[in-house]
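Tokens help. Consider this.
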Amino acid sequence: DYVAVSFPKNATDMMMARQLANIAGEEFAHKPQMIAKIERAEAIPALQEILDASDGIMVARGDLAVEVGNAAVPALQKRMIRMARTSNKLAITATQMMESMIQNPVPTRAEVSDVANAVLDGTDAVMTSAETASGRYPIETVEAMAAICIEAEHSEDFRLDADFLNVTFSRIDQSIAYGALFTAYHLRVKAIVALTESGSTALWMSRHNIDVPIYAMTPSRATQRKAVLYRNVTTMELAHSTDREAVLKMAQDLLLAKGAVQRGDMIVITWGEPMGQVGGTNALNIMKVGEY
């Protein structure tokens, strides 16, 4: 689903890697998402063009620190994550996040702060390395990281980024995605549901902090796997149908079955007309669960 490219220095490296990956997956009609591992000093001034040519970046702090020095990495991490979110791309933070847990069953306080700060910076994912590849406590490491991430998310002062109010959109589906965030934030709804084929609507929604869970419902297994990395997005499989009333009812039933909502709760839901068309999200509805 994702291919991480080591040591790219510019957009050309990423475009070449994407071309090779697409050729390799052509037999299966599969085009993997491309993640650029930012590990070279030359990649820093070219970061925007690398983001434009990629689906996300990995803040690979180990090799990057060798190139730019340890002291420069924390500020670069914040800058890279911020640029990724602004560009509607993924950000993964990696390297030595829970290094002591290779040998010890609990993390240090510094490691707890490191993981939490990556979450507060806006990262979509935190990644282990030797902790789970060869460490003595792989399960405990993942459990500890998950607990830190959840606590950090709960402690955030959630607010919509004011800058997106001044953005002009060229795509209807992107405008609908941001409209759903604005509506959900001010109405204090229980959930946002994106009925999506490609996952793009859910990705755009996930670029902004909001304390309302986002559910990406799709019939595509590939889209489900891809969207797992999107921050604050839960993926759910929704049977394919072109019957709008049937699809809206199925979406509500899935939320009820998961225990995410109760009858009478208000939700925001987006979809495309006609249904089943990639890039076709053009509708937004505010409804009470149980209306269908």
About this structure: The first strand starts at residue 2 and ends at 5.
